[in-house]
Amino acid sequence: MRTYLVTGGAGFIGSNYIHYMFKKYGDSIRIINLDALTYAGNLENLRDVEDRGNYTFVHGDICDREKVSSIFAEYDIHRVVHFAAESHVDRSIEDPDAFVRTNVLGTAVMLGCAKAAWEEPDGSFKEDRKFLHVSTDEVYGSLPEDPNAYFYETTPYDPHSPYSASKASSDFLVKAYMDTYKFPANITNCSNNYGPYQFPEKLIPLMINNALQGKDLPVYGDGKNVRDWLFVEDHAKAIDMVCEDGRLFETYNVGGHNEKQNIEIIHIILDVLREELSEDDPRRANISEDLITYVTDRKGHDRRYAIAPDKIKKDLGWYPETAFEEGIRKTIKWFFANEDWMKNVTSGDYMKYYESMYKDR
Ligand code: NAD
Ligand code: DAU
Fold first, then answer.
1. Which of 97, 181, 193, 331 is the most exposed place for a label (fewest CB within 10 A)?
2. DSSP of 178-238
3. Does ligand 1 come within 6 angstroms of the Cβ of 84?
4. What is the pLDDT of residue 98?
């Protein structure tokens, strides 16, 4: 039985990936989920898999070398799928050190422990082992507004925020392991994800939650920054395909070919909310374009991201299956069906975060 060590599996993409993997492989794989349960980690995301005999949750920090090595000592790990990270750009602008610690040091620890467990005495690596490093398109910097400009795997790195600089550093560590030791790894650089279980500090769930409550919808700058949105299940599928068939040492860009300005996204959310809320739902009265509030821009705000997913399409046959219109509707319906999830994650510390992040904008 193949064993996967997933880091950050209690977060947004990690939990969607775990669901995807059990749906696809059932009892034929084992998943060990190592997560420190920061504000972004939530075991509620994994309620429906927690009783499986082939799933184990380990509460721990990826920077804790002893803990990580003990997992490799206890289980014969075939795949490391490394999601764990500090992931929110705005938080990185306030507290860069936390990002350096988890994203850079944590990745170094994961790599060191995997290498120690997988390396043979002659310096080669055991068969059927791979480290999949989940990274971001933000490492490439910002694109001009020219619609023919895209990020390719060959685009030079040019990170701007502390978050993207820390992810770029972690990518370079993985590249160094591949170049120096022929360590079996792949890197994926993906565009903006959206979907179920996304924490409402990110644009889409934040706007859905605020609109339903009739709260201001804070648009940074002129609202014309462009992101390339991908439904999270399509990302999970891409990661699985790279784990299975990606050529060792290669990088794959993953993106939705779905570029939209932030303001367009907000208008779509308001339209779909109106369509999906029943006539007698009291929240309908809250949904209004008047909630849109232009606020001070994010510092160093990248203007445009857009991935050309040509390589993963040509080499592995991956493509984004979920059209945005379908994905955003599914996401909104998921939030309707999981009101308690949203209530739980927005109680307590979330309000403190929201007050401090948005008070001076
Ligand atoms: P997230 O913030 O929702 O989840 C991160 C998870 O990592 C949480 O469960 C958290 O508890 C855990 N974690 C944080 N620090 C840890 C530590 N020191 N030790 C162990 N666990 C720790 O993030 P996400 O949006 O799911 O992103 C997952 C990965 O995908 C990240 O590496 C991110 O850079 C990358 N990525 C995200 C997007 C996106 O749009 N969200 C796009 C491309 C790439
Ligand atoms: O591109 C991939 C990246 O996408 C991932 O690597 C990051 O982990 C993920 O957080 C995401 O980063 P962004 O900064 O693009 O996502 P965010 O949802 O924070 O913001 C999306 C856009 O919306 C961005 O241009 C900023 C803007 N925005 C965001 C928030 C939270 C607003 O205008 N208002 C807001 O309140």
1. 97
2. HHHH---EEEEEE-EEESTT--TTSHHHHHHHHHHHT--EEEETTS--EEEEEEHHHHHHH
3. yes
4. 98
Residue 138 lies in a domain: yes
348: pLDDT strictly greater than 90: no
214 belongs to a structural domain: no
Establish how many alpha carbons lie within 13 A of residue 359's alpha carbon, considering only the half-sphere containing its beta carbon: 6
Does residue 221 form part of some domain? no
Say if ligand 2 is within 6 A of residue 79 CB. Answer: no
- Nearest to 207, CA basis, from 68, 98, 358, 58: 358
Q: Where does the pLDDT of residue 360 fall: very low under 50, low under 70, confident under 90, or very high at 90 and above?
A: confident
Q: Which of 83, 109, 191, 230 to mutate to test the pocket of ligand 1 (most atoms within 8 A of CB)?
A: 83
Taking only the tens place, the pLDDT of each residue in 188-246 is 999 999 999 999 999 999 999 999 999 999 999 999 999 999 999 999 999 999 999 99
Structural domain span for residue 307: 2-194+230-257+300-323
| Bridge partners, residue 5, by sequence | 32, 80
The residues annotated as belonging to the active site are 137-138, 163
Whether residue 289 is contained in a domain is answered as no
Per-residue pLDDT tens over the stretch 138-193: 999 999 989 899 999 999 999 999 999 999 999 999 999 999 999 999 999 999 99
Residue whose structure tokens are 């009739």: 214
- The structural domain count of the chain equals 1
Nearest ligand by distance to the CA of 8 = 1
Q: Which CATH number do you get for residue 124?
A: 3.40.50.720
Instruction: For residue 330, give the amino acid letter.
Output: K
